[in-house]
Amino acid sequence: MRIDIITALPQLLESPFADSILQRAIKRNLVTVQLHDLKKYGIGKHQQIDDYQFGGGAGMVMMVEPILNCIQDLKKERTYDEIIYMTPDGELFNQKMANQLSLKKNLIILCGHYKGIDQRLRDHIITKEISIGSYVLSGGELAAAVVSDAIIRLLPGVLNDEASALSDSFQDDLLAPPVYTRPKEINGWKVPEILTTGNFPKIEAWREEQALEITRKRRPDLLDKDFSD
Ligand code: ADE
């Protein structure tokens, strides 16, 4: 898989890919993540990428030309499955979407800023609009990192068996059950007896029960939803 991220602030996106699981996935060539500095496509000697909005009103709008030129350059190299725009008024991101996107080959993720991008790009170029939650961030970069992380960890070979994505919260429409490690007791706080018995069918049943209970309490909405592919 390849993810091309278009941003006016590439330095904001360097560290999420420079550590831990994502860094390892990149080093192992399981994914290519390329950052593209939108300012390089800016217009004139000031490399302008935004302008005042028609009709008046506070806030700048990201112009069509720099974004279009950048995307067209990328499209010359390969075809893209989705051109994603990160925006608070997009479709709410969830595990099902991450699963679906992880099956794609080439993705572009465009990070918005200020008042967002010119609507004409949304009408004619963007194929998918994603929000990571009902709040407004300063820009799309952190949201792009969240989406990329959720996708990349699902790619074959990225996680080892121990960290298998299949046992994550949401993968089976349920939140994950509680986990414990050594010691068996500390400060009088004990690990649930069942987990120390070695009776794996019973342990599995206990975990399922716990997952259901936690989901019912915290996210009853999940019990009505379909997160599968
Ligand atoms: N850009 C600003 N806020 C955002 C959000 N909540 N999701 C995606 N992109 C954003």
Write the layout of secondary structure elements.
Elements: E1 2-7, H1 20-27, E2 32-37, E3 50-52, E4 60-62, H2 64-77, E5 82-92, H3 95-101, E6 106-111, H4 119-124, E7 128-131, H5 141-152, E8 185-186, E9 189-190, H6 200-218
Parallel strand pairs: 1-2, 1-6, 5-6, 5-7
Antiparallel strand pairs: 3-4, 8-9
Number of strands: 9
Q: Quick one: biggest sheet?
A: 5 strands, parallel
Tell me the fraction of residues in β-strands, as a range.
15-25%
Named at the architecture level, the CATH assignment of the largest domain is 3-Layer(aba) Sandwich
Overview of this protein structure:
The chain is an alpha/beta fold and 229 residues long. The chain folds into two domains: 2-152, SPOUT methyltransferase, trefoil knot domain (Alpha/beta knot), CATH 3.40.1280; 167-223, Trp Operon Repressor, Chain A (Orthogonal Bundle), CATH 1.10.1270.20. The protein has six helices and nine strands, in the order βαβββαβαβαβαββα. The chain has helices at residues 20-27, 64-77, 95-101, 119-124, 141-152, 200-218, and strands spanning 2-7, 32-37, 50-52, 60-62, 82-92, 106-111, 128-131, 185-186, 189-190. The strands form three sheets. It has a five-stranded parallel beta sheet with strand order 2-1-6-5-7. A two-stranded antiparallel sheet has the order 3-4. A two-stranded antiparallel ribbon has the order 8-9. The two termini are 18 Å apart. 27% of the residues are buried. The structure holds adenine. Adenine (ADE) is lined by residues 86-88, 112, 131-133, 135-137, 140, 143. Adenine is lined by residues 86-88, 112, 131-133, 135-137, 140, 143.
